[in-house]
Amino acid sequence: MAYLFAAYAVFWALTFAYVFSIASRQKRLEREIEVLTSALKSEEP
Predict the structure, then answer these.
(1) What is the rounded CA–CA span in Å between residue 5 and residue 35?
(2) Which domain, by its residues, includes 19?
């Protein structure tokens, strides 16, 4: 029974780490999009 609990704990830990990784990448991409959008707006005549 201990192995089953350990397996579930590892699974959920890896799942949360993956979701956190995706969320941080999404935030980074949103910031990059904002920078690019402002750069395009500043270059318009």
Answers:
(1) 45
(2) 1-45
Cα–Cα distance between 25 and 23 in angstroms, integer?
Answer: 5
Residue 1's CB is within 10 A of a number of other CB atoms, namely 5
Task: Give, in order, the Cα–Cα distances in Å from 20 to each of 1, 12, 31, 32, 40.
Answer: 29, 12, 17, 18, 30
Q: Can you tell me the distance from the alpha carbon of 41 to that of 21, in angstroms, rounded to the nearest whole number?
A: 30
Number of domains in the chain: 1
Numbers of helices and strands, H then E, in the chain:
1, 0
> For 1-45, how does the pLDDT look when each residue is reduced to its tens digit (9 = 90+)?
999 999 999 999 999 999 999 999 999 999 999 999 999 999 877
What pTM was estimated for this model as a whole?
0.72
